[in-house]
Predict the 3D structure of the following.
Amino acid sequence: MVNHLQLHRPEERTLASQITVLPRYAFAGARLSEQEKKAVEEYLSKQRMDILEQPTPTPVVKPAQIQELLDSHAQWVRMLGFDVKNSMPDLSKIYFFSPDEFAKLAKRWGKQANWGGAQFEPSGEIVLPDLPSPAATLGNLGHEIIHAFSKVTLFVRRTADGVIHTVPYLYGYENVKQGVLKCLSEAVTEAANIEALDYLRKRGGPDYLTGTHIAYLGSTISLDMMLRETAGLLGRDVKEIKREIYKGYFASQPFALKIIEDAFGQGALKFLSTLPFDAKFSIDLGSNNKLNKITSAYDEGEEIEIFGVRLKKPLTAI
């Protein structure tokens, strides 16, 4: 059997010298010695979420499927020039719950009833509902894997007596400390997941996209439209624009978003920073009608193209 993960098109080959190994954590604020950084990372790696509910012992997806998805997503990110081996999720920290148990977990944590799961820092744990459809479950997992691969910047504060305190600062594009860009960051996460899932199926791997609902539908379609408009305004290829946005996301470098302000003018990033969670948005108000049409078409089961991938809403509900 041919291992599809070893097949590459010529344009997808990336020289080893061009690959940057991303650290799992970066540090801002008070300076730490390398020894202190290692001590902080070791401490964080041992943290665990407050999970009282019982994960299902026999989830619908198998470890081999999870590992294949991890490897394929990592290979897709590598084509952007990044090695994410330091952020590879531990299979023992990926928990699947029956619908009833997951509903209890969501309620206790104050999440919405349709909550699809999450990846948490600093513990690195992933919690997901064990859905009847393996494709839907693995599609959701792919989104959380993308989160895990984005570098986490920790804000460091050292007290007068030398005690080190750290809190998450940047996570993808989201500024956790200031509470901004969460909407945009989640949309970029799902965009990367869609492209990575498409990468897997195009190389003879499983097709999880067909059974996966687009997460953060309004925000994700809005992002696709905005990046197309950005490319048009700047006279550039949208693939180049997406690549820059993805690279900034995984390296947690918000400066990469300046390209949007270059296209739309001053104030564009401030607008994006203040968007409510999971919002539909359009910097160009004239695009609202088109945005609503695409969203409605997807909801009605029509095929749409998003981030260069053609897909439609699965027939089964999640």
In short: The longest helix spans residues 182-202. The longest strand covers residues 164-171. The chain is about 40% helix and 15% strand.
